[in-house]
């Protein structure tokens, strides 16, 4: 009998490059709820909650902020109404927390404070700033790999970082790269994470370093209005430049420019602690591959990155 690999097994077998696979997001809204009135976490729960039910007006309000990403979060046996905002597209990314009395409180969230890089306000009060937060995709009803790979990573991370700092989340995107997680406040996204990776990932993140071999991308680059394709190319270039120049500190490298070249190629320029660096990124479509278990294989964008000399 022919054995079929899961999407995550296939991604690992193909040694798929992770960098440049996370779509842009400026601001993350994290809402604690098991969503009992929606039948629990389904594959497209954010879309479903946006169209009907108690969350519909709330999510429409939050989606009024440009490039906002909304995730529902939960913890085992948790029944609170915690709410977090991660402002990742700033020179100094921040994450804020509030505990809601009612989800309708979010209709009073002042979105202008975020666009002006001020602490967000609910009912006239500033939300509390916290130091770190981690979300691990465990949404098995979207793809079984998310639960199979994500749940043990969530448990390992909760054990080591503390349960108050770690949450299970609905779909991050890219379940073939499970386990996939986001480290806040910077919104750094990792993939193909295993429980044995957790200690190194946590120690490096707290020390201000990126693990490039697990790195998928991060929230939009501060000061740059990039479309999705340019953002993905910048993420792919960043990992190569960091490895080539040995600049692994989160703040060591800063994007300075993205220039379109011929044939869909881009020149991605950075300034870092070692001076200026640049890479050329060409994007092509891969051979068809599973993007989710049970779906028909389809081509996916694949980045070819070349370091440029003479910077």
Task: Provide the descriptors you would attach to this structure in a database record.
single chain; 311 residues; alpha+beta; Glutaredoxin; ten-stranded mixed β-sheet; four-stranded antiparallel β-sheet; 17 strands; 28% strand
Any chance you could write out the topology, listing elements then pairs?
Elements (H helix, E strand, L loop, with lengths): L6 H7 L13 E6 L12 H7 L4 H7 L5 E7 L7 E6 L6 E6 L9 E2 L1 H4 L5 E2 L2 E2 L1 E3 L2 E5 L6 H18 L4 E4 L11 E4 L3 E3 L7 H10 L7 E4 L9 H18 L7 E8 L5 E7 L2 E11 L15 E7 L4
Parallel strand pairs: 1-2, 9-10
Antiparallel strand pairs: 1-3, 2-10, 3-4, 4-8, 5-6, 6-7, 9-11, 11-12, 12-13, 14-15, 15-16, 16-17
Helix pairs in contact: 2-3
3D structure, described in words:
The protein contains 7 helices and 17 strands. Helix 2 (45-51) crosses helix 3. It has one domain: Glutaredoxin, CATH 3.40.30. The longest helix is centred in the middle third of the chain and has 18 residues, at 144-161. The chain has helices at 7-13, 45-51, 56-62, 112-115, 144-161, 198-207, 228-245, and strands at residues 27-32, 68-74, 82-87, 94-99, 109-110, 121-122, 125-126, 128-130, 133-137, 166-169, 181-184, 188-190, 215-218, 253-260, 266-272, 275-285, 301-307. 23% of the residues lie in helices and 28% in strands. With 311 residues, the protein is α+β, with helices and mostly antiparallel strands. The N and C termini lie far apart (55 Å). The model has no long low-confidence stretch (mean pLDDT 89). The chain is globular. The strands form 3 sheets. The chain has a 10-stranded mixed β-sheet. A 4-stranded antiparallel β-sheet has the order 14-15-16-17, with helices on one face. The protein has a 3-stranded antiparallel β-sheet with strand order 5-6-7.
């Amino acid at each position: 009998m022919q054995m079929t690999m899961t999407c995550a097994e296939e991604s690992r077998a193909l040694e798929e490059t992770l960098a440049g696979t996370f779509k842009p997001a400026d601001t993350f809204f994290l809402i604690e709820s098991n969503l009992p009135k929606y039948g629990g976490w389904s594959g497209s729960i954010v879309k479903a909650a946006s169209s009907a039910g108690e969350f519909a007006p709330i999510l429409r309000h939050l989606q009024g902020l440009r490039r906002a990403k909304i995730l529902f979060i939960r913890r085992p046996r948790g029944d609170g109404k915690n709410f977090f905002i991660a402002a990742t597209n700033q020179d100094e990314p921040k994450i804020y927390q509030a505990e809601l009395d009612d989800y309708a409180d979010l209709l009073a969230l002042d979105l202008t404070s975020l666009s002006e890089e001020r602490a967000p306000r609910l009912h006239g009060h500033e939300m509390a700033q916290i130091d770190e937060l981690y979300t691990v995709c465990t949404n098995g009803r979207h793809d079984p790999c998310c639960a199979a790979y994500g749940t043990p990573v969530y448990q390992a991370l909760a054990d080591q970082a503390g349960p108050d700092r770690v949450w299970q989340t609905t779909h991050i995107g890219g379940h073939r790269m499970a386990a996939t997680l986001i480290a806040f406040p910077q919104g750094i996204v990792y993939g193909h994470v295993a429980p044995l990776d957790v200690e190194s990932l946590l120690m490096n993140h707290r020390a201000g370093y990126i693990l490039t071999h697990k790195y998928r991308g991060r929230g939009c680059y501060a000061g740059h209005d990039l479309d999705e394709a340019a953002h993905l190319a910048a993420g792919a270039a960043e990992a190569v430049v960091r490895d080539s120049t040995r600049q692994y500190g989160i703040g060591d490298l800063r994007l300075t420019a993205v220039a379109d070249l011929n044939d869909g190629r881009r020149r991605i320029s950075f300034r870092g602690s070692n001076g200026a660096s640049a890479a050329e990124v060409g994007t092509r479509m891969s051979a068809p591959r599973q993007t989710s278990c049970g779906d028909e294989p389809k081509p996916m964008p694949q980045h070819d990155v070349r370091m440029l000399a003479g910077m």
